[in-house]
Amino acid sequence: MSLKGKTALITGAGRGIGRAIALAFAKEGANIAAIYAGNAQAAQEVCQQAIQLGVQAKAYQCDVSSFDLAKQTVQAVQKDFGGIDILVNNAGITRDGLVYTMKEADFNAVLDTNLKGAFHFIKHCYPIFVKKRAGKIINISSVSGLMGNGGQANYAASKAGLIGLTKSVARELAGRGICCNAIAPGFIETDMTAAIDKEDNPLAGLIPLRRMGKPEEVAQLAVFLAGSGSDYITGEVIRVDGGLAM
Ligand code: NDP
Predict the structure, then answer these.
(1) Which string of b and e fits 199-236 if b means at least 16 CB within 10 Å?
(2) Is the CB of residue 23 below 6 angstroms from any atom belonging to ligand 1?
(3) Does position 12 have pLDDT exceeding 90, yes or no?
(4) Crossing angle of helices 117-132/67-81, nearest 10°?
(5) Is residue 155 annotated as part of the catalytic site, yes or no?
(6) Would you tell me which of 9, 96, 101, 148 could form a disulfide with 33, CB atoms 3.0–4.6 Å apart?
(7) How remote is the CA of residue 90 from the centroid of ligand 1, in Å?
(8) Looking at the whole model, is its pTM more than 0.90?
(9) For residues 208 and 72, what is the distance between their CA atoms, to the nearest angstrom?
(10) CA 158, CA 156: separation in Å to the nearest integer?
(11) Burial level of 139, CB count in 10 A (0-12/13-18/19+)?
């Protein structure tokens, strides 16, 4: 068990990719602090499954876009688990539309959740990691942040911003033995992509492996980046996209 005894704080852990990461981490022995926004039942179910795998797990409601709520949540997790070793900034939303019609509120909501949310949790976990001179930060970006995507200017900007955040934090914290990396998934089968018309998606035919990915396939990389096997990797962005963005 590569993560035995570690505590992982995972945002958006109730569903999709975050859920798969939480359960993969629990299988590797990590205790799970599962952050959710509104879907308490899903987060509780993930915690129950994690507990059945023999680890501690607790769900916390927190809107990651709030600096103060993120701070309170990190403090609560620290108190309950006695420490935090791994941070996964996974919570994310889309508010797609062409720039021509995109409302300012939709641009702000996506940036506030996807990019500022990650900043908030990194900021509040920072002293915990620095004090221990150890820590693993994993930010879930997207191929949209690498390639851009028409109709997703807000989302792609937030995900590209996460890459800049990842590399900056990696440089800032490398001297303290803390690693910060990003994962850039392609099309993964979750609630987020359920609304996409897979037949009519112009990118679908461009995936060399000719299928969408599964949340578990993203989670396996997260396990590697959270464990000691990746101790010499920082500031990296790794795609899990079936070759889409190569
Ligand atoms: P889902 O829509 O399935 O799940 C999103 C998760 O984020 C939910 O758990 C949700 O909580 C949580 N969340 C949303 N807003 C907030 C908020 N303000 N505060 C706290 N939690 C919040 O998404 P995916 O699993 O598909 O995506 C996970 C991450 O992966 C996202 O960052 C996404 O951008 C990224 N990604 C996904 C891809 C895909 O194809 N699916 C491709 C590339 C990147 P709740 O359950 O309580 O609503």
Answers:
(1) eeeebbeebeeeebbebebbbebbbbbbbeebeeebbe
(2) no
(3) yes
(4) 40
(5) yes
(6) 9
(7) 6
(8) yes
(9) 44
(10) 5
(11) buried
